[in-house]
Amino acid sequence: MALSKFPITKNANPKQPPADETLSFGKVFTDHMFLMNYDAGQGWHDPRIVPYGPFTLDPATCVLHYGQAIFDGLKAFRGPDGQIRIFRGADHSARLNRSAGYLCIPQLDPEVVEASIRALVGVDQHWVPSLAGTSLYIRPTVIATETFLGVHPSASYLYYVILGPVGAYYPEGINPVRILVSEQHVRAVKGGLGAAKTAANYAASLYGAEAANKQGYTQVLWLDGVHHRYLDEVGTMNIMLRIGDEVITPALNGAILAGITRDSALRLLRDWGLRVSEREIGIDEVIAAAKDGTLKEMWGTGTAAVVSPVGELGYQGQRHVINGGRIGEMTQRLYDAIVGVQYGTGPDPHGWARTIGD
Ligand SMILES: *Cc1c(COP(=O)(O)O)cnc(C)c1O
Fold first, then answer.
1. For the domain 3-166, what is the CATH code?
2. Residues 224-259: pLDDT tens digits?
3. Full-prediction pTM beyond 0.90?
4. Atom of ligand 1 lying closest to residue 194 CA
5. Where are the beta strands (DSSP E) in 195-271?
6. Which CATH number fits domain 177-343: 3.30.230.10, 3.40.50.11590, 3.20.10.10, 3.10.20.580?
7. Which residue from 74, 108, 223, 326 puts its CA 20 to 30 A from 355's CA?
8. Which atom from ligand 1 is nearest to the alpha carbon of 73?
9. Is 303 in the pocket of ligand 1 (CB under 6 A)?
10. Domain chopping of the chain, boundaries
11. Is 28 in the pocket of ligand 1 (CB under 6 A)?
């Protein structure tokens, strides 16, 4: 398959991209989308770029009933030099395949996935905003499309990619969030789908997240589903904390999504010679450190926010303020380093950013 030569049907009625200042997240989409089909016996076929628009699905389409669906999320950035950079596109493409494996979805060629993203961003490149902090969000997705009721893997699938310009996550500077340690609800368990980026995990997180919102918290800190003791993730981000001079993040244990931002942060922290542990960390250890003052900072990592500092932790009816409710030094340093790679304003020692058209 020639990677850069996907057939294109141009949108006859292209829209005017909104002004950068008005952008939020996930509401506006560009003029084109990428599609590719899978059918048993035929494999993946017919990659193409077509005008953005709705799908027609039979009401018995199996994804609508049994949730056999995966996605990924990454971004393209327009730097002050005018270049458009996609951050770790090959790694996101590889992760889509790992998610596919957990959901019994046939493997895609990761080079085709990355090429599809690059080609689509190329076609809609005038949609990549340029205001500081803005970006183009990229959503590759696979859904099961066979028409049947019954629980078994589908014989046909649709791979699609859509794009949408998104606003700065922190238009007024980085704001620490308040998070509630969930003692009742769990997002995922070992042996389940926690390591896959799949719709089911988001459905499972809604109830606990709403409960936290009602108590005035922004996000949930998810504990493991077996002991309700060890940290898994925060909201839809990976969690990191610094106790004394040790940076700790939960090891990838099957219940945790292997975040690309998590990986970027760990690599940078190790480059900087810091002591980094991927290990089990119990909520009792975190609360003890919060009480004796050794919990220096805590933050979530994810593509949407890069880093999201935790200013306050609610646990068993008590509130624990972290670093005076302000962003920590290491959190800020990570944010600056990663954003520098994304916009081409800082060094890229690991070659994470790839410009469009190179
Ligand atoms: C997407 C996601 C993350 C963050 O992954 P990134 O690759 O850093 O964006 C973390 N946890 C969950 C559950 C996620 O779905």
1. 3.30.470.10
2. 999 999 999 999 999 999 999 999 999 999 999 999
3. yes
4. 13
5. 219-223, 231-234, 237-243, 246-249
6. 3.20.10.10
7. 108
8. 9
9. yes
10. 3-166, 177-343
11. no
